Structures are given as C-alpha cells and as structure tokens.
Amino acid sequence: MLEWITNAIATLGYVGVALLMLLENVIPPIPSEIIMPLAGFAAARGELNFGWAVFAGTVGSVAGALLWYYIGQALGIVRVKKLVDRYGRWVSLSSRDVDIAQRWLLKRGYWAVGLCRVIPGVRTYISIPAGFARMKMLGFLTYSTVGTVIWVAFLTYAGYLLGDNYERIETYIAPVSRAVIIGLIAATVFWIARRRMNPPEPPG
After folding, report:
1. Is residue 204 over pLDDT 50?
2. What is the mean pLDDT of residues 137-163?
3. Dihedral angle, C-alpha 97, 102, 103, 105, nearest 10 °
4. Is residue 167 within 8 Å of 2, Cβ to Cβ?
5. Contact of 149 with 58, CB cutoff 8 Å
6. pTM above threshold 0.85
7. Given pLDDT bands bounded at 50, 70 and 90, which one contains residue 125?
C-alpha cells in the first residue's frame, strides 16, 4: 500500500493527495497517518508546497466527511429509530434515546464534530449521526473543516520534520488511536450497564 500511495502522490501531486484523503475517509484501511506525512516529506524535498499539500489533504478529507454526512441523511432519523426499536433492546436503547442524541447533537454537537475530526478511529464516522440528525450544513462544514485542517497540518508538518522517517508517525499515533477506541468502548459499556441497572421512566 505504501508504494501505491507514494506513486499516487508522485504522479498526481496535489490531486493525488486530495484523492487519497477522500479514499481514506471512505476506505479506513488507507491511513491518513501515512498519506499526509508522505506529502510533508515531499514538501521538505521541494516536490510539493507545504501549504498547498495541507489544502489538498483538507479538501479530500472534507469531501469524504460530506459523503458520510449524506449517507447518514439518506438513512434518516426515522429509519434509524426503527432499527433501534427493533434491535436496540439488546443494549437497552430505544428510539427515545435517538431523539435525545439528536437534540444534543443539534444543540451542542458542532464542537463535537470538530473534535472528532482530530481523533483517530472516530474521525470518519462522526459525519453519519450529523447527517441523520440533519445538522445545519454551514455549521457542520465549518467545524469539520477546522478540525480537519488541524489534523492534516499536524500530520504534514510531522512528515516535514521527520523527513525520510515519515513512516514513524504512524507508529507514534497507533497507540493513541487504540487508547481512544478502547476508551470509547469502555464508556459505551459503562453507559449500557448503567442503563440496565437504572432503566429510564416511560414517557407519561
């Protein structure tokens, strides 16, 4: 995969960076932790401009986020609630919980979108609930773009500094990514356990 990524950037330049970052959002095994540090390394060698590399990576990544947003929107809140009512009893979820989550996301969720865009492992999929909650596009795009710029610029700069050791950035980030995912799983399990011990009152 590394050779394929390297060839795409060498052949297509900024377009290759943008396309790879789009694919990274659609096909998670393609890691941004390799794409953007490699672009940073290319910038350090004078083959790419650092600013334009960050711009291209951001454009591709935000395009991928928009794709998942529209998938969530097409799925729709009604369909999500039906799925939760049908299968959610196994984890003590109901359509009422979906309504609560939707209200929270619409009221306070913009910052969550921006934050999740810099967290490995979850940065891609935050767009789905934003889509089915029909979060306002301007807010979603703004916060998603800000978070993406931070993530992309960090990776690109790391590759710029590390030079031909740019691959090491994935080694550094991998433990953080695992820790975040384990933490999210633990928080979910804890929440489900609390729900089972203290089921919500049925609506009056």
Report:
1. no
2. 90
3. 120
4. yes
5. yes
6. no
7. confident
